[in-house]
Design brief:
The protein is an alpha+beta fold and 351 residues long. It has 2 domains: 157 residues, Aminopeptidase (3-Layer(aba) Sandwich), CATH 3.40.630; 168 residues, Aminopeptidase (3-Layer(aba) Sandwich). Helices cover 32% and strands 25% of the residues. The protein has a 6-stranded mixed sheet, with no helix packed on it. A 6-stranded mixed sheet has the order 10-15-14-13-12-11, sandwiched between helices. A 4-stranded antiparallel sheet has the order 1-3-4-7, sandwiched between helices. Strand 12 and strand 13 form a beta hairpin. The longest helix has 17 residues. It is elongated. The termini are far apart. The relative contact order is 0.16. GO terms for molecular function: acyltransferase activity.
Length: 351
Amino acid sequence: MRPDPAALAIEEVTSTAALEGLRPDWEALWNAMPGATPFQSPAWLIPWWRHVGEGALFTLALRAGGALVGLFPLYRYGQPEGGERVLFPLGIATTDYLDALVRPGWEAAVPDAASRHLALRAGCDAWEWPQLRPGSPLLALPAPPGWAEEVVPADPCPGLDLPDRVEDLAGRVSGKTLRDLRTVRRRAAEAGALRWETEAEGIEEPFEALLRLHGARWATRGEAGVLASPGVQAAHREALPALHRAGLLRFHVLRLDGAVVAVLYALADPPGRGPRRLYFYLSGFDPALERLSPGMLLVGRAVEAAIAEGFAVADFLRGRERYKYFWGAADQPTFRRRLIPPREAPPCAAC
């Protein structure tokens, strides 16, 4: 039987407490979605809203027979008078993939019902949804009748298809990059005692080291870096334990003579899902040790660990930095979608 949009109950979630109350059902829905990334999980988005989000929460929870079958984590930003009011996805700016969640089997009914409800109730001048992957529910959501729509390319997310064995990397990564990796590993070993650690040995110290190293690296460019905001830092600190418990977190930490000199912060698709992706979110290293190529050391370590763990793709996330292509990554498209309601007709002077 085809799911009936009329059978759906739609709840408007407009408070942080109500959003938090959705967590168990949200987690169950997220786990049922084979293509959902950690960026759509409540472990990531609830802390984002609590510490980074501004404006008015306007999330839709759609249920059928009491079961959550759709979640549109959205918020309104701007003033209803004297400026544009836009409907954005939760997680914007600090999140590389944005999206809604729709339970398999409900791909037509849920977006249709959500579109009609948002058109009636959201009260915004535009809906703007960036960083949407092909097949995204937000990309497929029907435009309300009469609305203008624009879909344009957004930042690509280069990804490397991983082989089954580390020995087969030569078929995916250039020979020069692999030779350079061997060279920098020898150079680093000659600089002192090296030790690699993971999040299994703790999550607080790696994150605090990342803050320090990421900030120091960006300071050499006269910029603050994406972790400078206290709100962003607080969101990550709250998210990390839940991500760790769910198996979604990976830290790769490099110590040189006992001191942390480089950190890679990555997110992972959950155990048991396939094919799994590892998302290289942020890194930081001591700029005084740039001659040791710590960035290459981090990526080499993470790629090899991902292969050993059975990941199918190393996702370098948004941006066209040159090093990603040295590793054989190919662009994966994302899109920005903007929907604008019809303008009210101007008053008729002859009426």
